[in-house]
Specification:
Layout lengths: L2 H6 L4 E2 L3 H19 L7 H4 L4 E2 L2 E3 L4 E2 L5 E3 L3 E3 L4 E3 L4 E3 L4 E2 L4 E3 L1 E2 L4 H5 L2 E4 L2 E3 L4 E2 L4 E2 L4 E2 L4 E2 L4 E2 L8 E2 L2
Parallel strand pairs: 2-5, 3-6, 4-7, 5-8, 6-9, 7-10, 8-13, 9-14, 10-15, 13-16, 14-17, 15-18, 17-19
Antiparallel strand pairs: 1-12, 11-12
Length: 170
């Protein structure tokens, strides 16, 4: 089983594996093509990486690890300079508004220094419901689910699940 297969199945994987590094490089180049000349036509460089793509606006500065684990609903908006580390699935529902500089982190590292130095990683999915608004600079940690109609405050670190209609202000 490849490290990519392990990653996609939610198992521990080696993040410094050559195949994974090359996949991240391909995603980085696709993002760079769009970010250098943002247009509807160039958006395809990013969206063809995605597992699922409804419709949304992505402002320049977008970065992702692989793109292959990103599922996008309808009518969303991703503001400037957002980062999606998609070692596990990232799912955005419909009508999601993401402020500038928001980071979604599915990947995590072992707390043991030797294991971490050897490149071991693990990842947990992030799920964002419908009609969610995430304020600028927010950070969403691995394994978080955000319910429908929730509001995430600017510059907060989301460390727990957020219920439907909840305002999470840190």
């Amino acid at each position: 089983m490849t490290e990519f297969d392990k990653m996609r199945q939610g198992l521990a994987f080696n993040g410094i594996d050559t195949d994974l590094r090359l996949r991240r490089e391909a995603a980085r180049l696709a993002c760079a093509k769009y970010n250098a000349h943002p247009s509807k036509g160039n958006l395809r460089h990013i969206t063809r990486l995605f597992a699922e793509f409804g419709s949304l606006v992505i402002e320049p500065g977008f970065q992702c690890d692989y793109g292959t684990q990103i599922h996008i609903g309808e009518r969303g908006y991703i503001n400037f300079n957002c980062v999606f580390l998609d070692s596990a699935q990232i799912t955005l529902g419909d009508d999601v508004l993401i402020g500038p500089g928001v980071h979604l982190y599915t990947v995590d590292h072992p707390r043991d220094a030797a294991t971490r130095a050897a490149g071991e990683c693990h990842a947990k999915p992030i799920s964002i419901g419908n009609k969610v608004w995430i304020g600028g600079g927010a950070k969403i940690l691995p394994g978080i689910t955000i319910g429908d109609n929730a509001i995430i405050g600017a510059n907060v670190v989301v460390t727990r699940n957020v219920a439907n209609n909840e305002r999470y202000l840190g």
